[in-house]
Specification:
heterodimer; A: 220 residues; mainly alpha; MetI-like fold; 8 helices; elongated; B: 216 residues
Chain lengths: 220, 216
């Protein structure tokens, strides 16, 4: 028996795919912005904060980096309600993404901060800059320029990882794929097309991140 | 329900961990072998070998691992071959791993100074001999730390095999949760076991990295 591929079976469902794609894009965009903010705070605390705070951040980073995203997601969505914290699947997806990217970007940004010569900080202090100014204009600015490529690829990895949020029924692109294949039983066609959409998305995202990097992050 | 005590849950989870480890080993070793072959193709300077390898890597690095698992699980069945979750998960994870390892190792090969290539070419070595005797032994030294680091990603990647019905640690967690209704405890334990598997590897990778920097 030979199987005939039938991609036209997807056409009636294009709106589901479009909504799913939109959700994935919004989820990625929001968790990138918030996640990097968390990472910046985390890295600053890890490098310049008091020992207890630095230790706490370290535990957070190691815990997240050494467990799978899907387990983090399940813990937040299924586990936290047991403590009385009920979350909708969309909220849980956003929180899990932010927590995940926050840990990775903390580690990446910290590596950038470590690479800055101490003399730069001392030079800033000797110009009567406040600690916050030194952090903002000298440390973080240079750190971001150094680690931008690593951060970009982490953002792409997180975008691809977001496919997992479909497992708690957050309505993303993969959720749409699962829904469609449960309707028309064209599993291979659906997943093939959706895989290609993800591929386009990651190529576009990489391109966009490079544009942003060239425009805003480079230290000239 | 009451006979699912803490220890029963823990015992079942630890039992399931062996399949996480087995799948990780299959993916890592299989991916290493495929990755090495791809590395030879990718750095061969022969265009018709390089371009397909590049596309392969682009596909596996540019699509979600979950999609790849679905494609293998549902796609191979189209050829009339019965696919067990074992086969689908093993294949998908192997190919996924190979794409990343090839890219990591390519970086290491490219870090070897050009003079090494020229010197070995000038003593009439062909490409395979150059790689075998000159380039790889040096590249391997730099490659160990990021390779160990990537093994952590492989272990975490196997968690997705639970979605196509492969019973490993995460799937066992879901099943135990369904039986006991104690999600907080079950998923905390699952996370803890993953942590115990991954953290030593992360730590080791970091230490190797540090050592290498000192040697330079």
């Amino acid at each position: 028996m030979t199987y005939h591929l039938e991609f036209s079976a997807l056409l009636p469902y294009w709106q589901d795919l479009a909504w799913g794609l939109w959700f994935t894009i919004v989820l990625t965009a929001v968790s990138t912005v918030v996640g990097i903010a968390v990472g910046t705070l985390g890295a600053s605390a890890r490098s310049f904060g008091p020992p207890w705070l630095s230790g706490l951040v370290r535990v957070y980073v190691e815990l997240i980096r050494n467990t799978p995203f899907i387990v983090q997601l399940f813990f937040i969505f299924f586990g936290l309600p047991a403590l009385g914290l009920k979350l909708s699947e969309t909220t849980a997806a956003f929180i899990a993404m932010v927590v995940n990217l926050g840990a990775y970007s903390t580690e990446i940004i910290r590596a950038g901060i470590d690479a800055i010569p101490k003399g730069h900080i001392e030079a800033g202090v000797s110009l009567a800059m406040t600690r916050l100014e030194v952090l903002r204009y000298i440390v973080l600015r240079q750190a971001f320029a150094k680690i931008y490529p690593a951060l970009s690829s982490q953002i792409v990895i997180v975008m691809l990882g977001s496919a997992v949020v479909s497992q708690i029924s957050a309505p993303d692109l993969t959720y749409a794929a699962n829904f469609i294949q449960s309707r028309n039983f064209r599993a291979f066609e659906v997943y093939f097309v959706v895989a290609l959409i993800y591929l386009m998305l990651s190529i576009l995202l990489r391109y966009l991140l490079r544009l942003i990097g060239d425009r805003f992050v480079k230290v000239g | 329900m009451s006979d699912f005590s803490f220890w029963v849950i823990l015992k079942n989870l630890i039992w399931a961990t062996q399949w996480t480890i087995a799948l990780s080993l299959i993916a890592f070793i299989g991916g290493g072998i495929v990755g090495l072959i791809l590395l030879f193709l990718r750095t061969s300077q022969v265009k018709w070998l390089e371009v397909p390898t590049k596309l392969y890597i682009e596909f596996f690095q540019g699509t979600p691992l979950l999609m790849q698992l679905f494609l293998f699980f549902f796609g191979v069945a189209l050829f009339g071959i019965e696919v067990s979750p074992w086969t689908a998960a093993g294949l998908a994870l192997t190919l996924w791993t190979s794409a990343f390892l090839t890219e990591i190792w390519r970086g290491c090969v490219e870090a070897i100074p050009k003079g090494q290539w020229e010197a070995s070419a000038s003593v009439a070595m062909n490409y395979i001999e150059q790689m075998r005797y000159v380039i790889l032994p040096q590249a391997m030294r730099i490659a160990i730390a990021p390779t160990v680091g990537f093994s952590v990603q492989v272990i975490k990647g196997t968690a997705l095999a639970s979605i196509i019905g492969f019973v490993e640690l995460t799937k066992a967690g879901t099943m135990l949760n369904n039986a006991t209704f104690r999600p907080f405890l079950v998923y905390a334990l699952v996370a803890l076991i993953y942590f115990c598997l991954c953290f030593p590897l992360s730590w080791f990778a970091k230490r190797l990295e540090g050592k290498l920097n000192v040697a330079r």
